[in-house]
Specification:
alpha/beta, Undecaprenyl pyrophosphate synthetase, six-stranded parallel sheet, 9 helices, binds 3-methylbut-3-enyl trihydrogen diphosphate, binds magnesium ion
Length: 244
């Protein structure tokens, strides 16, 4: 049974397998993405109801721009539909919407409604929903390093003062709680340039379920597995038990 008193504070999901879901049914890939958007709705609602503080969804990677043009276009249209259609749900449930990734690469028809909803939901406090859009973990770390280098050049920072703490403050994920659980669907066991820095001590949960089939029950299962793990953060098991 899932324990609501020791939930992961921040869950991130690599929502993979839409294409294979469609292919198995003889449908075009986009139908898999469409069904995947329904799974997003279910998982956001379930997370909010459970009391998860933050949920990050890998919706589009920096590398996904290289997919066929029609697929990229269809994904962007689904993203816009999601933002427009979920507005009421997000506001009514006091969810704060944020993004990580290079928003400037998104087409205007997505960026405009997205930015309005980000601004309008900024004061909401029940849960943070973070969409990773045009996101790459390496790109994000490089951007942080660049900002620190600029601060050094400007004379505001000494190189020897750079540490894990202030580096993390340059990452767009600084507004999110510590990442506790990373879920990847579809059987692949890789990180695909997702939260490279943030996942340092996250627990990983891999499932063969394809993203469009991922449900509230699948999320509960992932959280339950997470709760059965011992997180040691480099310490010994004995030390961890004393501290608890
Ligand atoms: C995940 O499903 C969605 C995105 C990457 C946008 P895929 O489209 O990668 O599905 P598969 O991996 O081809 O099955
Ligand atoms: C990762 O899935 C990106 C998203 C889920 C948005 P991919 O399907 O792009 O990853 P690879 O290509 O299998 O590593
Ligand atoms: Mg994939």
């Amino acid at each position: 049974m899932l324990n609501v008193h020791s939930l992961p504070r921040h869950i991130a999901i690599i929502m993979d397998g839409n294409g294979r879901w469609a292919k198995r049914r003889g449908l075009p890939r986009i139908e898999g993405h469409r069904k995947g958007a329904d799974a997003v709705r279910e998982v956001v609602r379930a997370s909010r109801e459970l009391g998860v503080r933050a949920l990050t969804l890998y919706a589009f990677s920096a590398q996904n721009w290289d997919r066929p043009m029609e697929e990229v276009r269809a994904l962007m249209e689904l993203l816009r539909d999601y933002v427009v259609e979920e507005r009421t749900e997000i506001m009514d449930n006091e969810i704060r919407l944020v993004t990580i990734g290079d928003r400037s690469r998104l087409p205007e028809f997505v960026r405009q409604p997205l930015e309005v909803l980000i601004a309008d939901s900024a004061e909401n406090e029940k849960m943070t929903l973070c969409l990773a859009l045009s996101y790459g973990g390496r790109e994000s770390i490089v951007a942080a390093a660049r900002r620190l280098a600029e601060a050094v050049v400007a004379g505001d920072l000494h190189p020897s003062d750079i540490d894990v703490g202030n580096f993390a403050q340059e990452l767009s994920t600084k507004v999110l709680p510590e990442l506790d659980l990373v879920i990847r669907t579809s059987g692949e066991q890789r990180i695909s340039n997702f939260l490279l820095w943030e996942a340092a001590y996250a627990e990983f949960y891999f499932t063969d379920t394809l993203w469009p089939d991922f449900s509230r029950a699948s999320l509960y299962q992932a959280i339950e597995t997470f709760q059965g793990r011992e997180r040691r953060f480099g310490l010994t098991s004995e030390q961890v038990r004393i501290r608890r």
